Amino acid sequence: MSWFDNFLNKVEYIRPCYMIPFLVSVSMCISSLLAPLSGEELTHKFVKPDEKVFTGETMEITSDYVIVIGENASASEKNAAEKLKQYLNEISGMELRIVSDSTEESEKEIIIGKTLREGTSYTIDRANLGDDGVVIKTVGEKIVLSGAEQRGAIYAVYTFLEEYFGCRWFTHDLTVIPKAEKLIIPEVIDYTYVPSIIFRETDWISPAMSNEYKVANKLNDNVYGVISEEYGSGISYAGSFCHTMAYLIDTNLFETEPELFAYGVKTRTRTIDQPCLTNPRTLELAIQGVRKWLSENPGAKIVSVTQNDNQNYCVCENCKKVDKEEGSQAGTMLRFVNAIADDIKEDYPDVLVDTFAYQYTRKPPKITVPRDNVIVRLCSIECKFSTPLDSGVIKENDEFAKDIKKWSELSNNLFIWDYTTNYSHYLAPFADFDVLQANMQFFVENNVIGMYEEGNYTAAESDGEFAELRCYLLAKLMWDPSCDIDRHMYEFCEAYYGSGAQGIIDFINYIDENSGGISVDLEPWWITPIPNRIDIRNGLTIYAPVTSQTTLRADKDDVKKIDAMWQTAKDGAKTEEQLDNVLRSELCWRYWKACARVGEFATKDTDSTIEINKALYDDFVKFGIRRLCEGEGGYMKETPDFTVSPNRWK
């Protein structure tokens, strides 16, 4: 007997005159409890944008144009000129010469970077361009592609090719260069752009495999793929990128100097899990380690002094005292990091010391403020990623929003470590596409200047969802949080998947609209003032069970509709590569169906189960799927048990 049947049995003898007010009062109580959870419609539905049409006056780049670079042009400026020459040739067949600024000036020039042409008919004010600012302008018939000295010129060339000729660098091995009989651009261009996010990084597949991909899409880190000097170089960390305490404090010292290490809050004994941050000797060794890294990496701009990836922090008497004064373990950490920042500042004035606001250090301290040369990298690991961080309907997101606002008041160098995949199920649909832009804009509104969008960093061996698409969109958003995200979505999908791309986008819209909670259908029996169907937004975590309502809701009819979406995508693939891209991405849907045992996987016959699961496994192998989740135990067995669902094939 269901709980409701039991409830009716208990109340069936209540007089009818009391039943209606009783049910109304109960329903109103439940409604008030559910109201904060149900929220408003939060998803962004991707819709095909109108075609961009330019109606102003135009000018033509003709064969008598020359590309001008400085006599002492940097490696990236020279490369920018070569790339412009290459792609204009691919577009139109036109071969332009590259000349030095020492040659006689002519009317028809495309000027790249810093040259002697500046100061006559135009100037470039580089004071506020940082390392990445872009300047594109026309001066009469001249075209200026310039900007910041480090990466401005090469960024300007790729922006010019993208905006005015439709060139796209979608993945490391998918570049689209349209053809045109004439090279037509607006007669008047006056474009200056300086990104508010100065450190832009994500760890999906393409960034680590192509310098050109990173630079064309304005990723500027040296963490996942080192950007060469020809592409403007990237921002490097000295030593390791994260969780560096284990490297800065040699764990071999534990036997002779255990007091260097934490008296763990969980173990209640000395442990190498974390260091003791109030021990002066620990600080001395950390400073030595930081200086060693910086001396070995002279071009590095950041050094990481970050807690290890566990929560067994120190609760010795000294650490507890500081924690209590600060109201947070972040205060103890910041005092330690500030001391290191003070020590190196004079010798390394351009280096920033990076530390975490992560898990137990996420709460801002009451007293200590980060030094001007300290980065606070706030991590969103506890958040729910199917709902915007500032939506006001998810408790965890609300708490994070409060923390980021407080940190933005304390720190001028606020970075974010964000998360964009399901680490328990790399192949599961991860319904965050609709919130990516809202969250990026929220970060910028709170003075964030550095972004690391962590995804499936092992995607090269577990690419069965939307690795390349998500990477492309994240790169575009980090460069310009107000970009036309719908246009980027459609352009990518049409190039990557083919003319059936709408099927893919329909699927993405579906999972965005049907994740992050449970849907309760009350219509058969609930006579109340509340809606007959309630959407409770619990929120999608980065460890959500694959078959949970937070990952995806779909009934039998929905499964058929979604199958039809994927069939549309397959039917529209015009090349073998596009079909493979569709089939690879469809693995996330097939994985979900197999784990939920719906659709073709709903069979209860053992032989049929083995056959259909074996077909899925064979496609995993075909598309290079070796890993199902994060960690050492995440690899798929070579001979799994096909009688069980694929989440158990590890």
Describe the structure.
This protein is of the alpha/beta class. It folds into 3 domains: 58-194, 2-Layer Sandwich (Chitobiase, domain 2), CATH 3.30.379.10; 206-496, Alpha-Beta Barrel (TIM Barrel); 500-648, no CATH class. The chain is built from 17 helices and 21 strands. A 7-stranded parallel sheet has the order 11-19-18-17-16-15-12. The model is unreliable at 1-40 and 522-535 (pLDDT under 50).
In brief:
This protein is of the alpha/beta class and 650 residues long.
**Overall outline:** globular
Global Rg: 28 Å
> Which band does the percent of strand residues land in?
5-15%
For the report, how would you describe the main beta sheet? Answer: 7 strands, parallel
Q: Number of folding domains?
A: 3
The secondary structure category is alpha/beta
CATH architecture grouping of the largest domain: Alpha-Beta Barrel
Helicity range of the residues?
25-40%
What would the keywords be for this entry?
650 residues, alpha/beta, Chitobiase, domain 2, TIM Barrel, 7-stranded parallel beta sheet, 6-stranded mixed beta sheet, 17 helices
Topology:
Blueprint (H helix, E strand, L loop, with lengths): L2 H9 L4 H23 L19 E4 L4 E4 L5 H18 L4 E4 L8 E4 L21 E6 L2 E6 L4 H14 L2 E4 L2 E3 L6 E4 L3 E4 L5 E4 L8 H6 L20 E2 L6 H4 L12 E3 L6 E6 L4 H17 L5 E3 L12 H10 L2 H16 L7 E6 L16 E6 L15 H16 L3 E6 L16 H10 L2 E7 L12 H13 L5 H12 L4 H13 L3 E5 L11 E5 L18 H17 L3 H21 L9 H17 L28
Parallel strand pairs: 2-3, 2-4, 4-6, 11-19, 12-15, 15-16, 16-17, 17-18, 18-19
Antiparallel strand pairs: 1-9, 5-6, 5-10, 7-8, 13-14, 20-21
Helix pairs in contact: 3-4, 7-9, 8-9, 12-13, 13-14, 14-15, 15-16, 16-17
